[in-house]
Amino acid sequence: MKELDRIYRLLRYELAQARNRLNDLEKELEKFPESGCSIVIKKIKGKLYCYMQWREDGAVRWKYLCPVRPGAVCREEAQIQYSKELTAQKKEQESVVRHLEDALRSLQTERTKEKIVSDYSFEVFWKDEITARVHVQGSRVKVSRFTEHPLKQLFASTSMTRHQLNHIFELRCWDRNRADIQDILNRLGINEYNPREIVQKTHGVSYNDFIWFRFSGEELTSKDVLIARDC
């Protein structure tokens, strides 16, 4: 999952850069309406004249420039050539953006699948007293409860869905709508509001009680976790 998250963050950054580049190209192109134009020479009453030609609303339009003479329309030619190069770059950049968007959507699907199918377990403590052990397997959650004390026990049932567990996690998190939530998540190294990821960082500590979570592989006691209530 960590590797998928790293690639996901990299793709998001590259997509943001690609969109910025596309936006710059579009703004630059706005300065050159000649992007779809070409210069043609017309013979009128035996004399040659230069015209700007383009298509608009299904009809061909012309704009008179000057009589034909060496270098008379070099400025217009340079602008047309530059705008054509910008148009080609814009099309290429649009393709880059589409590919990155497709890759990001695909990767997000994989991240979601991996989050859903990953099995894990954790323990719930009240101070240093274990009150429950939770096993998340597939879409189901099994809870082994070791106390019925209402102030020490979070779980009313021994079985629930991941969605229900996620709701319990969220009750141990900051309000997702608070103004500075993104700053808090950034400090935790989390990209988006995900209750499970948050409680893995905070251990589900709350100022309202002495309950906390210990995930697999952690060597922690209440002294390590509950003292750091401002984290």
What structural class should be given to the helix and strand makeup? alpha+beta
Topology pattern, helix = H, strand = E: HEEEHEEEEHHHEH
Relative helix content:
40-55%
Distance between the termini: 24 Å
Strand content: 15-25%
**Mean pLDDT over the full residue set:** 88
Total of DSSP H or I helical runs spanning 4+ residues? 6
Overall geometry comes to: rod-shaped
Contiguous runs where pLDDT drops below 50 for at least 5 residues: none
How do the strands line up in the largest sheet?
A: 7-6-5-4-8
Task: Report the radius of gyration as a whole number of Å.
Answer: 31 Å
State the total count of DSSP E strands.
8
Biggest beta sheet summary = 5 strands, antiparallel
Task: Give the oligomer, counting copies of the same chain as homo and different chains as hetero.
Answer: single chain
Quick structural gist:
This protein has six helices and eight strands, in the order H-E-E-E-H-E-E-E-E-H-H-H-E-H. With 231 residues, it is α+β, with helices and mostly antiparallel strands.
